[in-house]
Amino acid sequence: KFQDIGFQNISSIPRYDIWSKAIFLIKKRPILGWGATTFPSLYIFYKGIFPSTQHTHNILLELALSYGILTSLIFTVTISLLILKSWMKIYKKNFIHNRYKIFDKAWWTSAFIIFLAHLTDLTFYDVRINLNAWIILAGLRCILNESKDSSDINIIES
Questions:
Q1: C-beta pairs of 85-94 under 8 Å, 24+ apart in sequence
Q2: Cα separations in angstroms, 57 against 5, 45, 47, 102, 130
Q3: Residue 137 in contact with residue 110, Cβ under 8 Å?
Q4: Can you tell me the distance from the alpha carbon of 135 to that of 129, in angstroms, rounded to the nearest whole number?
Q5: In this structure, are residues 74 and 49 in contact, taking their beta carbons and an 8 Å threshold?
Q6: What is the largest CA-CA distance in the chain?
Q7: pTM for this one?
Q8: Rounded Cα gap, residues 108 and 128, in angstroms
Q9: Could you give the CA distance from residue 70 to residue 78 in angstroms, rounded to a whole number?
Q10: 22-80 residue pLDDT tens
């Protein structure tokens, strides 16, 4: 499909047009944003070429457009630190060697995939996916809060 579009017609790719309009709108009101759910109307007003577009297809652009760059920055830093610190605990440091380590790795991988998915589409608006994403992020926070000393953990072997 990319061969049909080519680099000379990159502006005809839907995400390119949506993201470029979103960045243009963010530059117009960077502090407070435009308000929730205003993107569809603004997109049509500023001559977006895909009139059925309902959101920016990127969580960071959506937050910056709706609530300002500061909100987007706080969200980005918080989630990035959570993912980075949990990665350091699970993969880098001498993590507690128990039979649940594989589950923590799977938990981290799920959170990372959800984070990446929100950069290219907003599954945030689907309640089932959104609820699962917050549960997975809460799980990462619990992994970070686990005791660092393995003697504090009592695993009952059956």
A1: 85/144, 86/111, 86/140, 86/143, 86/144, 87/112, 89/143, 89/144, 90/143
A2: 20, 18, 18, 32, 14
A3: no
A4: 10
A5: no
A6: 65
A7: 0.76
A8: 19
A9: 12
A10: 999 999 999 999 998 888 888 889 888 788 888 888 889 999 999 999 999 999 999 99
